[in-house]
Amino acid sequence: MTERSWKSWERRSARDHGTERTPVSGRQSDAGGLDWESAVFCAQVKLGYRQPGYLTRWLGEIVQHARTRGKIGFVLWKEKYKPDAEALVVLRYDDWRDLHGNAAEPGAGTLK
Predict the structure, then answer these.
(1) End of a domain among 9, 34, 49?
(2) Distance (Å, whole) CA 66 – CA 17
(3) Distance between CA atoms of residues 70 and 56, nearest Å
(4) How far apart, in Å, are the Cα atoms of 105 and each of 15, 42, 52?
(5) Considering the entire predicted model, what is its pTM?
(6) Pair 44, 85 in one domain
(7) Are 74 and 33 members of one domain?
(8) Rounded distance, CA 10 to CA 46, Å?
(9) Is residue 14 domain-resident?
């Protein structure tokens, strides 16, 4: 049986962080959609068709700008009238993995 692409993405991202995907059968009703868990993170991993255009553009611009300075760019986005604590941090997965992934993996912790 061919593995679904979303399941494969969950598995790869879990392994990037030194853990394994939590199978659906292993989730409790109060797990909150947990796809994998590490010593620091609980992750819900999503695979979609399209990212909103404005986020794609903003992220591309700041990533390019940050690279020229040897830094990591991200977008901090907050919905109007929502508390600051509810803002979202959006960055490329490659940068996230370099910052927080499995240190035993080749290339982890290095900026590309």
Answers:
(1) 49
(2) 24
(3) 20
(4) 9, 20, 31
(5) 0.71
(6) no
(7) no
(8) 8
(9) yes
Do 61 and 41 share a structural domain?
no
Other CB atoms within 10 A of residue 112 CB: 7
Q: What is the pLDDT of residue 108?
A: 47
Q: Does 1 have pLDDT greater than 90? A: no
Is residue 45 left, alpha or beta, with left meaning phi > 0 and alpha meaning psi from -120 to 50?
beta
Per-residue pLDDT tens for 7-33? Answer: 999 999 999 999 999 987 655 555 678
Q: How far is CA 77 from CA 10, 80, 109, in A?
A: 24, 10, 25
Tokens (6 digits) for 62: 């700041």
Residue 88 β-bridge partners: 77
């790869």: which residue's tokens?
12
Q: Kindly give, in sequence order, each residue whose CB lies less than 8 Å from that of residue 40, ignoring residues fewer than 6 positions away.
A: 100
